[in-house]
Amino acid sequence: MSEETILLEVRHLRKDYGNGAVLKDVSLKLEKGEVLVLIGPSGCGKSTFLRCINGLEPIQSGEILLDGLSITDGTAKWSEVRQKIGMVFQSYELFPHMTVLDNILLGPMKVQKRNRKEAEADACQLLERVGLLDKKDVYPRQLSGGQKQRVAIVRALIMKPEIMLFDEVTAALDPEMVREVLDVMMELAAGGSTMMIVTHEMQFARAAADRVIFLDGGEIVETGTPDAFFDKPKTDRAQRFLNTFTFEKK
Amino acid sequence: MQDLGIRVLFMGNNFIRLLGGLWITLKISLLAVALSVVLGTLLGVVMTIKHPVIKAITKFYLEFIRIMPQLVLLFLVYFGLTKSFGINLSGQVSAVIVFTLWGTAEMGDLVRGALISIPAHQYESGAALGLTKGQIFLYIVIPQTLRRLIPLAINLTTRMIKTTSLIVMIGVVEVLKVAQQIIEANRYTVPDAALWIYGTIFFLYFLACWPISLLASWLEKRWKN
Ligand SMILES: Nc1ncnc2c1ncn2[C@@H]1O[C@H](COP(=O)(O)OP(=O)(O)OP(=O)(O)O)[C@@H](O)[C@H]1O
Ligand SMILES: [Mg+2]
């Protein structure tokens, strides 16, 4: 890993919620174009970690650097930093009072001050890519969960972020809709996007990841290539976690 | 000629007097509604602040206004202020004050409810896009709040218009007062005048409130999501 290609670096991040540390001492580096999948048991701090990276949660100590510059030393403007970090949440939070197109255009027009025509052309191109161009004028309530989540991805992508964060974006979806969303993410990964993905879809994790990080109890317990991690986890905790996804006949 | 009570309506300028009474009612209501919307919005925003003292004060105000019958409040302001402090308020001013106190409390509660009903995720989605706090309010929170609020505020308006019928008790000439005068004047010649006059008033109130109610339910349906 050469230093010039490091896009995101987290150093000794610590995050407390009232009663104790949720993230104890997390450090990692993410290269440009790398797809990092974060897995771990419920409550281990995965969502919190992503939320810290784009400033939705204040951190207690440590440092986060984007493009080599600290974004946690108090000098960075979050509204600028967040343009470089796209985020998609588990509960598809589109703005219910706006059409699909207006949802997508809010960021480019109000944050980046782009003109509508040009941004709209971009939006349509992205919608086409996720197969939803015909839905551009409908309201979110008229979409299925999978469609909403694809729109949410487009809404983040149109800002041309340097890195995309995905927090269990398929966890609230019916099984038959999971695929259409994961396909979009696979395509992004193949297209060279830098991504950090939290997921419980192990098959997808294995296929999409360049590197897997296993988080437990607020710490990085294990990190490795997907094949190494899924076939021969080095730690007992990772092994036990992976066992929860397999079934044996009793 | 058969003695039809309806003719009292058209005797002299009775009908015009009734309409004039309704107009005063509407004027008081609309003034109070306008003031309540402004003050209630401020109160509603203040009520979302999580501070124990602010919470206690606003809660006390809200409960006090709700528990007190409007009639008692009217007497308190109209007669009470005059007696205790020598402040002389006209019936119309007292009515506006009381209905504004009441409307502000109710409106404040509606605004608070609409504001806290916007999920935290909406704010976060906006923040994640890089919107500033002000932009989040302007483009995401306020439009959604208004959609929830406007139908409820309109319903409150009709309630306020209806309740203004109480101000007859403090002698403000308004629709019910005019009605009583007409009925009194015709007690012997047209015994069933009361039926006709009150029936007409019912109809007038209905005419004033019904379109407003219709608008409220139309907006509610349109903005449901
Ligand atoms: N706002 C909060 N206040 C207090 N504690 C919180 C808050 N948010 C999360 N926590 C706690 O922090 C810990 C980590 O939560 P987090 O949501 O990051 O877990 P997670 O790994 O994303 O879990 P899941 O897989 O269920 O989404 C949990 O124990 C949770 O209860
Ligand atoms: Mg989570």
Largest pleated sheet of chain A: 6 strands, mixed
Strand segment tally of chain B: 0
Mean pLDDT rating of chain A: 91
CATH H-level name of chain B... which superfamily?
A: MetI-like
**Overall helicity of chain B:** over 70%
Mean pLDDT over all positions of chain B: 83
> Which class of the domain at 3-95 and 164-243 in chain A in CATH terms?
Alpha Beta
Strand residue content of chain B: under 5%
- CATH architectural name of chain B: Orthogonal Bundle
Order of helices and strands of chain A: EEEHEEHEHHHEHEHEEHH
Task: Give the distance, in angstroms, between the N- and C-terminal Cα atoms of chain B.
Answer: 60 Å
Largest interface: A-B, 30 and 20 residues
Task: Classify the oligomer.
Answer: heterodimer
- Lateral arrangement of strands in the main beta sheet of chain A: 6-7-8-3-9-10
The portion of residues forming beta strands of chain A comes to 15-25%
- The value of Rg of chain A in angstroms is 18 Å
Task: Tell me the helix content of chain A.
Answer: 25-40%
Question: Which topology of the domain at 3-95 and 164-243 in chain A does CATH recognise?
Answer: Rossmann fold
Count of DSSP H/I helices of chain B: 9
Total number of domains of chain B: 1
The count of DSSP E runs of length 2 or more, i.e. the number of strands of chain A, is 10
